[in-house]
């Protein structure tokens, strides 16, 4: 059982993941307004999301190295600070005049800020397994990993509901950008005061993680992770489903727009998908902590998630709100239940390395590849609400 100090520390981690979720989806969750604000097409709006995936490919290994060598606090604080810088650069872009004939200045500074903020996300996404290994005993690690990991998805659900609510048109876009910048500042404050390690290790394995018994050079250990057959299978599984899940939750408002659903309604689909996923992960984490049936859950949920992705292709049509939202929820429930299980299995596959953060980094890296592929295959013209075209 975690003590109050441990739980407070975990809320710091959760707050950072929530902030990065809002900054990530500031523009793509309100694509029409963002196009008017930035004077660009839908492809550029999608790029604001894709930048997060590209940044992860570069910064993911860096964050894994920092967690193993510099510790949790320094790594999280570094990520939080660069997110603040990026978020406020995006807001300052609001003061640069932008017209359809000359969108350059505002758009350029926005993208620069987005790249900087995106570079912070791996530091928040990769920490849950490392944090759970250091701060929790074996009986609570899967649940702790689940809470930290799903907080980013929880933020995505909130963002898809809140940002469309406060962004009614292109003129109110700057308000959303400001709210996200303030949230980034709020998240960095508690990170300054968090502890790097518990005063007393909660278990022998946690003590081992703190001592860093692995004496091999970092890159030698990294090579072992990359050649571990069981881990590679898990990485492919995790990457495929998380990549599809994140791409769908990001683009779902654009997928449904051609069938008469506006941004707010599309946000309900994304929120249903993510909230149901949170419920699935919330159930799976404690259950797996008790019975350790990792393999059984994977064999059950993978076929179900695949089936619901296929069904989704056939239910998206006009005047079928209930059907779309039900399938979205079932898709999220089956996909996200895999998250805490696969993350904890990734750590279990590499116990001799004590590289929890790097293991998560590899798994998430595969997910970013899949997300880029999904975004790259989708082009949606939303400039005219009455004539929406989708090309895949």
From TrEMBL:
Record-linked Pfam families: MFS_1
Composition-biased stretches (Basic and acidic residues): 376-392
Region annotation Disordered: where it falls in the sequence: 360-392
Cellular compartment(s): Membrane
Segments crossing the lipid bilayer: 14-38, 50-68, 75-93, 105-125, 146-167, 173-195, 231-255, 267-288, 300-317, 323-345
Coiled coil start-end: none
GO terms for cellular component: membrane
Membrane topology recorded in Swiss-Prot or TrEMBL: Multi-pass membrane protein
Keywords: Membrane, Transmembrane, Transmembrane helix
GO molecular function: transmembrane transporter activity
SUPFAM superfamilies linked to this entry: MFS general substrate transporter
Keyword Manganese: no
Protein name: Uncharacterized protein
Keyword Transferase annotated: no
Entry superkingdom: Eukaryota
